[in-house]
């Protein structure tokens, strides 16, 4: 049993909270509290507290600033029709957080600690959980090296925090996004930190994301670092390709190689696709094969998936040498069927056959 101290905040009024959850945007406003735990090699995990959301005081020589020991997770809490609040497969986030910590030579919070901090924060700030299929409370657990010093080594002190923000849709689900294939930059190489959810991975991706924006695209598709030909993932999301159509459609997602983030949504959609009767499997697909398969009609839909966006349809793929439109450039029926099936489970409108949902409040 994790002992968590509570320090109440002087929060917003009920009217202010209602206005925020009615039109939350994405990641712009945060709840009244945050969860915090400290770690040191002498004491282990200690001083676990729910306290008022507030700025952190940082020493200029804090090791995370200089050497990048910083990891995070992303989760959502959903309000069901009966008023209860649930999250989706949080044990997978806890285990991935541990793997990310291990890769960056950081201490691994126990799953019990991770889940207790998430749950108690949501219970405390339950009023911020919106109502509606595309609205949720986005939960951001993160950890960084807090020791002060300039030696290049793993730190001996860390802060683990959880914050939360009411959010709407990341992308408009009724519109298909356009993506840019990056041939100049790579996201991750074998032996690197590709499967860890660490801050440095995202910092290194921003230049390619800016390049995509300059080409009129919403996101970037990454290729492998060795041959620069195999499709890996899109921005901070995993990819799925729909082969064929109707009940005979098949789903393909790039296989995990150590350079891709093992997404919770990705893993769930593999199971859900098979549940819905689509032959869903992992494999490899080259960028040239992707272009040719779209042109021939073999690939009829493409979508990305992740916690923030859930499922985002892709309508156009661009590169320095070739542009292709997928189908009619609009969200496809298989994509939207998968999206609805997943959201229905998450929001309590469909039976949870796999016990994926975890009651928080």
Automatic annotation (TrEMBL):
> Which cofactors does this gene product need?
pyridoxal 5'-phosphate
In its UniProt entry, what is this protein called?
A: Unannotated protein
Respond yes or no to whether keyword Acetylation is given for this record. no
Q: Which InterPro entries match?
A: Aminotrans_IV, Aminotrans_IV_CS, Aminotransferase-like, B_amino_transII, BCAT-like_C, BCAT-like_N, BCAT_family
Q: Which family does it belong to?
A: Belongs to the class-IV pyridoxal-phosphate-dependent aminotransferase family.
What are its GO biological-process terms?
A: amino acid biosynthetic process; branched-chain amino acid biosynthetic process
Record key words, sorted = Amino-acid biosynthesis, Aminotransferase, Branched-chain amino acid biosynthesis, Pyridoxal phosphate, Transferase
Q: Which organism is it from?
A: freshwater metagenome
What GO terms are given for molecular function?
Answer: branched-chain-amino-acid transaminase activity
- State whether keyword Calcium applies: no
Quote the Gene3D superfamilies the UniProt record gives.
3.30.470.10, D-amino Acid Aminotransferase, subunit A, domain 2 (3.20.10.10)
């Amino acid at each position: 049993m994790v002992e968590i101290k509570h320090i109440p905040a002087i929060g917003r009024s009920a009217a202010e909270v209602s206005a925020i959850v009615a039109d939350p945007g994405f990641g712009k406003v945060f709840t009244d509290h945050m969860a915090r735990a400290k770690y040191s090699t002498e004491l282990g995990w200690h001083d676990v507290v729910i306290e008022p959301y507030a700025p952190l005081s940082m020493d200029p020589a804090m090791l995370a600033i200089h050497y990048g020991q910083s990891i995070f997770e992303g989760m959502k809490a959903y309000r069901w029709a009966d008023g209860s609040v649930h999250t989706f497969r949080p044990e997978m986030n806890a285990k991935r957080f541990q793997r990310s910590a291990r890769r960056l030579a950081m201490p691994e919070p126990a799953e019990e600690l991770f889940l207790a901090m998430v749950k108690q924060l949501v219970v405390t700030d339950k009023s911020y959980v919106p109502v509606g299929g595309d609205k949720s409370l986005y939960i951001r657990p993160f950890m960084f090296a807090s020791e002060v010093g300039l030696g290049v080594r793993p730190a001996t002190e860390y802060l683990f925090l959880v914050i939360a923000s009411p959010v709407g849709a990341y992308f408009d689900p009724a519109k298909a996004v356009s993506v840019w294939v990056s041939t100049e930059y790579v996201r991750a190489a074998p032996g690197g930190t590709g499967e860890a959810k660490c801050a440095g991975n995202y910092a290194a991706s921003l230049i390619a994301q800016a390049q995509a924006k300059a080409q009129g695209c919403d996101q970037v598709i990454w290729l492998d670092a060795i041959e620069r030909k195999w499709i890996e993932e899109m921005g901070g999301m995993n990819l799925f390709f729909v082969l064929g159509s109707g009940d005979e459609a098949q789903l393909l997602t790039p296989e995990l190689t150590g350079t891709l983030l093992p997404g919770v949504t990705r893993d769930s959609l593999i199971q859900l696709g098979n549940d819905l009767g689509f032959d869903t499997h992992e494999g490899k697909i080259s960028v040239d094969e992707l272009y040719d398969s779209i042109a021939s009609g073999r690939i009829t839909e493409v979508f990305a998936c992740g916690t923030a966006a859930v499922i985002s349809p892709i309508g156009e793929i661009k590169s320095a040498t070739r542009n292709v439109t997928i189908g009619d450039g609009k969200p496809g029926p298989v994509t939207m069927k998968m999206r609805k099936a997943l959201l229905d489970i998450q929001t309590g409108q469909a039976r949870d056959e796999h016990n994926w949902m975890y009651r928080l409040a």
